[in-house]
Amino acid sequence: MSASVSAPVRVALDAMGGDKAPGEIILGAVQAAREYGIGVYLVGREEVIRAELAKHDTTGLDLPIVHTDEVIEMDDHPATAVRRKKNASMILALQLVRDGKALGAVSAGNSGAMMAASLFTLKRLPGVDRPALGGIFPTKDKACLVIDMGANTDCKPEYLQQFALMGSIYMERIFNVPSPRVGLLANGEEESKGNQQVIDTHKLLKQNAAKLGINFIGNVEGRDIPGGVVDIVVCDGFVGNVVLKLSEGLAETLLGLIRAEMTSSLVNKLAAAILKPGLRKVFKRLDYAEYGGVPLLGINGSAIISHGRSNAKAIKNAIRVARQTAETGVAQAIAEGLTRIEQSEQPQPEVQQVDK
Amino acid sequence: MSASVSAPVRVALDAMGGDKAPGEIILGAVQAAREYGIGVYLVGREEVIRAELAKHDTTGLDLPIVHTDEVIEMDDHPATAVRRKKNASMILALQLVRDGKALGAVSAGNSGAMMAASLFTLKRLPGVDRPALGGIFPTKDKACLVIDMGANTDCKPEYLQQFALMGSIYMERIFNVPSPRVGLLANGEEESKGNQQVIDTHKLLKQNAAKLGINFIGNVEGRDIPGGVVDIVVCDGFVGNVVLKLSEGLAETLLGLIRAEMTSSLVNKLAAAILKPGLRKVFKRLDYAEYGGVPLLGINGSAIISHGRSNAKAIKNAIRVARQTAETGVAQAIAEGLTRIEQSEQPQPEVQQVDK
């Protein structure tokens, strides 16, 4: 299966970004090229990339190198790094998208910098107040998008309404969920629950959801995220970040405790060996690598921010998602959806305060 | 071991509150009376309580009944119920505390109503802006108090500072943690991280912690809660509620998936049987029943709000904690600590805005 087509379909990859760069990152690109027939621009230090590519069979794969010496490090200050390191690998990757040479960009490097660089290079879509990170959260039986997952700590109800719209479009197009269910994260299901921000957002969504094509089902609680009650959970980036990191930490702690018990004696080890294939299925479901990375939604292009710990599989999936996000027209659909928000806002009276 | 002493040491229990009332609730009281020598006022319908007590050997136990026909139901609106059902079992239990007849009150009933009734009956301590719920979160190797866990959705930095103080006193006295470590929940460890509320609270705590005897170690992230990095995690009640419910939901989902794998075949069931004692240790660590209930801190007395699903063990432990909270002088220590906050506020300039 050769990947070459007349007009190359390529994704730009920051080959230097991530804890496991360059080895796993470049391996991920090789796998994406082979499995999905996607061309990948490998952006970074040419000799390093060449040395890695030499370890694999890349016959017939479309993996052009874009050389740069500059790299944004994990501990660089995001905004400063983006301003000073104008030729950093992640920035050049994004410029390939901006210039129409790549469908999307992927980086597992400094995520704050990747966010800032995506905004700076690709710009926000007209009408978008705040681009947001949509994180995929594994649930009992499907994926749930938590948006915002950390891009915006302080949010207005209007931002959260936009998150609901952007998340709906993403889940519809990338996860093929028809009319995805949107829940607003709160401390109770009743519409009177929430902090002031959530109470106001609930009113706004209740008023506008139908017009905007958002399948808003009301408030959801923390337990409903792993419970898989909705396809999209809307929250501000402060809460979303706590949700993400708490979940990662809790799963790690819990699995660590279980693993320790399973290896605490020879008999336990033998019993655990029998259960291993089944448990591996459980662990796999919790594996962020399955989902590849997190899209920054609301920008004019496709940028995927991968976990710093990404392995080859995560990068492979991120490359697939970057292409899919571009090809299914997520950005255009968001821009169109936002004009519906603007129209719906024109003739409406101010959001009213509900008496309590 | 008889429990009678000359001046009876009693806790007041809402015998009608909880999903498993009255059976498990009253059994919990019997166990507390026998194991800890605590007298327990059983507040509720006399004939129901008598019928339950008849199932157990209560010889020598101090379990007086306080009869009332009125009960606040789980689906009653908290504030309305507290106003209308003036003789409800949880309210009478709290009045026994207010009148000096009981050391503390415990209810596994409608938690919103128990909070409202505690505030209404026992009143807040002088200087307390907002009483808060301190929830015990099981971690890798110890307990962590998350405060506030749901009493206050919108908080000012001054409230969060008080939560830090109240939580410190509770962990010191009830969990015997010397100089407990306090972390402020944020989306990153750097002091520049957080929403505006958290950034302002960080500044306030940094300025005042030493004077107040709070061992403030800075910001913590979601993953640090199960990681056991600190003894107290301070957050507003909206975030705290999300943390609590997400954790419960995630643990349930994860253990459910693992359990399903372990029983998916006869061979798996046999292997699982070998691992059972070890895994039970893990599950036990996650068992809210070990901690009994959640104190409402900042009120003039000891009120423990138990989980709706409380079993006898949870109630037994809640009764123990209610007594301990009273006997170790948690409320008095909070009141004293708050005068230190007031003193520290007198000569201080306004909290300054940090340039970003």
TrEMBL record, chains A, B:
EC number: 2.3.1.274
Cellular component GO terms held in the UniProt record: cytoplasm
InterPro entries: FA_synthesis, Phospholipid_synth_PlsX-like
Localisation: Cytoplasm
Pathway: Lipid metabolism; phospholipid metabolism
Highest taxon above the source species: Bacteria
Catalysed reaction equations from the record: a fatty acyl-[ACP] + phosphate = an acyl phosphate + holo-[ACP]
The keyword Lipid metabolism is annotated on this UniProt entry: yes
GO molecular function: phosphate:acyl-[acyl carrier protein] acyltransferase activity
One Gene Ontology term from the biological process aspect of the record: phospholipid biosynthetic process
Chief place where the protein resides: cytoplasm
Keyword entries, A-Z: Acyltransferase, Cytoplasm, Lipid biosynthesis, Lipid metabolism, Phospholipid biosynthesis, Phospholipid metabolism, Transferase
Family assignment from sequence similarity: Belongs to the PlsX family.
Record's function text: Catalyzes the reversible formation of acyl-phosphate (acyl-PO(4)) from acyl-[acyl-carrier-protein] (acyl-ACP). This enzyme utilizes acyl-ACP as fatty acyl donor, but not acyl-CoA.
PANTHER family (UniProt xref): FATTY ACID/PHOSPHOLIPID SYNTHESIS PROTEIN PLSX, PHOSPHATE ACYLTRANSFERASE
Subunit annotation: Homodimer. Probably interacts with PlsY.
Protein name, UniProt field: Phosphate acyltransferase
Species in which this protein is naturally found: Dictyobacter kobayashii
Gene name of the record: plsX
